[in-house]
Amino acid sequence: AQSVTQLDSQVPVFEEAPVELRCNYSSSVSVYLFWYVQYPNQGLQLLLKYLSGSTLVKGINGFEAEFNKSQTSFHLRKPSVHISDTAEYFCAVSGLTGGGNKLTFGTGTQLKVEL
Amino acid sequence: GAVVSQHPSRVICKSGTSVKIECRSLDFQATTMFWYRQFPKQSLMLMATSNEGSKATYEQGVEKDKFLINHASLTLSTLTVTSAHPEDSSFYICSARARGTGELFFGEGSRLTVL
Asked: Cis omega (within 30 of 0) on the bond before B8?
């Protein structure tokens, strides 16, 4: 079984400042890792994913995340945020065996970008 | 990009009635659809996995007779909450896995309020 912890429920940040949204996971098997974004009244949209290979993954809208196996983390970062980045961000994990199609989500982090 | 549409987006019903929520993949065929439930400030919890033309696989603790899932075609899955009670009030989200690419797309969610 897998679990995901998003330590911050809310992250306020000023526009053009950098941001990091934290995600830690636990799993007894190797995993795939994902970050999704949910804008108000919209569905979840995939930001980026780590399947294998380079531990630094670049996604849409200038976001990137780094897979750190020793720390079981997959933190999401953006060097300079924009007002339009205000949204809910979900980290998710799926196991490579047995439940490969099933995603386990974190509780989400509300990113609020202020002027 | 690929679109998954849920209908209705919001529904209010009386206790004891049944409510049907539809999940449609608008421009692709979905071999598998997933239904999630999301409580305020909590994770998306997987309820069931449905494959076209076969019975849904429910997660532990999810009542099959309470949450009826039908996946009659490659573009439509329905979730029926039978004899709804106030504790069934929640945000229900579906996702669809695209045939061929295997990419996962999410619907906008349906908010159910049972009075």
From this structure: yes
